[in-house]
Amino acid sequence: GRAKAEAAYERERTIASTLQRDLLPRRLPDAPGVALSAHFSAGGEGTAVGGDWFDAFTLPGGRLGLVIGDVAGRGVGAAARMGQLRSVARAYAVEGHPPAGVVARLNLYHQALRADDMTTLIYAVIEPDHGRLRLVNAGHPPPALVVPGASARLLEGSCPALGIAEICRAPEIVVDFPPGATLALYTDGLVERRHEGIDTGLARLLSALAGAPGDVDAVRDDVIEACLGPERVDDDVTA
User: Model-level pTM greater than 0.85?
Assistant: First the structure.
């Protein structure tokens, strides 16, 4: 009986880990005028994986689509829902729907998928030719933006997480995104700690971004080092 239980555990661990790994882009796209960098580290052990994912893809007109999300729950079930939402989000985006339209459709899909769960998500579109950023935040930690000559700031404003309300009327955030601007999307594992309030973690993030713009990989490393340091966290960290 013990041998069977250990074998079943190993199978589930392998399946969950493989699903989560396959959800992450194998390479970031080449987007004219935009440099990309990403970080992911799994916080759970064994079958306790799943939850965070991100995606990046080019869109017609030289635009760039970015998605970051966090599915409630852990394990194979959460990883499977991540895979479905990632595919559907990209499909709606490629169809040409604006951020608010993508999130509204994802909310309906999410309710049909699993009505008793929720997912936080940001869908952002960078338009380099127009120097503009458009995004919708469905219950996710606020993205951080720094533009040349200004302090890093959080882009506040969101609608409920996917699965909370039957109808999602998402407010679209539109801001200038000039050359040299830096956008940070992340999940709560980057800024939340059990022994402190989230405001402390957000302040650390903004302080780390204060040196941007710069080499995007260096900015990423500065943010991860400032926000995590040597501490081992028990949640996924995606940025």
Answer: yes
Q: Where are the beta strands (DSSP E) in 139-228?
A: 144-146, 153-154, 173-176, 182-184
H/E stretch holding 93: helix 75-94
Q: Give the DSSP H or E segment for 3.
A: helix 2-23
DSSP one-letter code for 61? G
3-state SS assignment for residue 58: strand
Q: What is the mean pLDDT of each run of 10 residues along the chain (239 residues)?
A: 73 66 81 92 60 91 94 75 88 94 92 79 96 96 94 93 85 95 94 87 93 82 88 76
CA distances (Å), origin 227, targets 205, 231, 232: 6, 9, 11
What is the model's pLDDT at position 45?
A: 55
CA distance to 18, 49, 51, 96, per residue, from 4 (Å) = 21, 22, 27, 49
What residues does 144 pair with on adjacent strands? Answer: 154, 184
Burial degree of 60 (CB within 10 A; 0-12, 13-18, 19+):
exposed
Quick one: pLDDT at residue 104?
Answer: 93
